[in-house]
Amino acid sequence: MLRYRGKKLALNIVKELDSFPKVQEEIYEPSTYSNVILTVLISIFGLWLLISEVQYVLQEHYIYRFVPDTDYESKLPINIDITVASTCDSIGADIVDTTGQNMMLFGELKTDDTWWEMTKEQKQHFEKMREFNAYLREEYHSMKDILWMFDNYNTLKNKISVRTEKPNTLPDACRIHGSLILNKVIGNFHITPGKSLIVPGGHVHLTGPFFGSGATNFSHRINQFSFGVPTKGIMYPLEGELYETNENAVSYKYFIDVVATDVKSHSNEIKTYQYSAKDIQRKIDHNSGSHGMPGIYFQYDINALKFIITENRITMFHLIIEIASTIGGLFLLFNFMKIILDKFTKKVYSFFTTDNIVTREKSLDYK
Question: Is the whole-model pTM more than 0.70?
């Protein structure tokens, strides 16, 4: 056996000195249309996930929890703006609670003679507030959808516009408005015929023709009825309520459950109140056994629990981790889908290839 001892080419020498193993050309797989389509779909899905993740981080998130309300010494501010379809001389407004404290210590409400018929601007404002509150009561059942509402809702919380043009007739209604500082106990705010007289241990209502309390109509609309400091976004369910009747002896009763609410954000902390309300009305008719005094009654009770809402803002470090995990999940999903797609393609290809071979063999046998 003779061995070639001639000079080797430089290229062959370099190939022999290459210590890295070469990958066989057979394992390279050319790109297919299925892989391209899969890549495009995964990319679109990943982009949608990333955009959704960023939008979720930019939103405000809150944690809700109930705790016992142990703040017994605090006061309960109440804000009232109610228009009654009776003159101010024929009705009176006062409040009593379980402490028996003199109602003059709570503050004083203002009474203004006005007209029951609203102006065009006032009617538009009131109807808009009424429709919006009714929509929230029917459609929204979560506090997070009501808190921090957009600015268009806040404009509805402003006071109703002042009447610029006065009718030629005498005033036929009374606007009762103002704020009181109440004790944080069970109480009753009411508007009844006649005037109230303070006596030791409470007060009495003086009614009759000598006290300007003849036939009174207690049709009313509630422009404002809230507890605590008015806060952006919290809905007060009685605002925008309207009751009209042609009867003089009608009793309207509202049963209110007041819940202390603390809203804690990164910038400030708000202490306010929200409430739920039920109402009932009936006609006073002593002949039929329906006794009582006509008027408008707001019976409120303080809930034993406090509602705490804490803002939970996601940090940038958390966002980076979420994006990294999303990208990792996309690569895993792509590889998983590619394996399934390749196996499915090979199965289909082998099926049709085997079928063609069998068909060809049968045709040769036939010949």
Answer: no
